[in-house]
Specification:
Ribosomal Protein L25, Chain P; RNA Polymerase Alpha Subunit, Chain A, domain 2; 2 domains; four-stranded mixed beta sheet; Rbsml_bL25/Gln-tRNA_synth_N
Length: 192
């Protein structure tokens, strides 16, 4: 991202369900800013600027959060949506220290058509996100997996995923991110 986005929020005094309902009725979104040092600040933000920012950066980019005139680097940490309307009902911001690594989820994008799919196999995506550890300013937008060389009954494991410099995958077990399985008809034919 070439230019850091910014979002202005205000601190809020009213806490609880009733106060939050009033904010939402006034086209405001209640939220909480969690500082890297453990300080929690209840905030409110206008819905439209928040919606625009979230559609541009989601949860994978640092932006400048302006709280009552003070600018702090932050991530959109958690967003709650209305169950039937396209509205954000609550947002959590996480203040980051730009010099310390953080753990975040990054979406996986699969490109290409595998050898196994060409032969009739089924692509199975096991993980849509990968947990990574990196500095806040080098969080990748997405992790692209080229699957053109994956054959039937083969997988791409997390240890095989090529990540940008300064980004490390977080995992205990070497799990499969994607795999190509034999189709049901092929599997039945082999068993007969």
């Amino acid at each position: 991202m070439s230019q850091t986005q910014s979002l202005a929020v205000k601190t809020r005094a009213g806490l609880g369900k009733g106060a939050c309902r009033k904010l939402r009725a006034d086209d405001m979104v209640p939220g909480v800013y969690y500082d890297a040092k453990g300080v929690n600040v209840p905030v409110m933000v206008e819905h439209l600027p928040l919606q625009k920012l979230y559609s541009k950066i989601a949860s994978s980019h640092v932006f400048d959060l302006q709280i009552e005139g003070e600018t702090k680097p932050a991530l959109v940490w958690k967003v709650e949506h209305h169950p039937t309307k396209p509205r954000i009902t609550h947002v959590d911001f996480y203040g980051v220290d730009l010099t310390k690594e953080i753990q975040v989820r990054v979406p996986v994008e699969v490109v290409g058509k595998s050898k196994g799919q060409v032969k009739g196999g089924q692509l199975e995506i096991h993980r849509e996100f990968i947990e990574v550890l990196c500095l806040p300013l080098v969080i990748p937008d997405k992790i692209v997996l080229d699957i053109t060389n994956v054959d039937i009954n083969e997988s791409i494991l997390i240890a095989d995923v090529v990540l940008p410099e300064g980004v490390k995958a977080v995992y205990d077990n070497n799990y499969a991110v994607i795999g190509v399985l034999a189709s049901a008809a092929e599997a039945a034919g082999e068993g007969a």
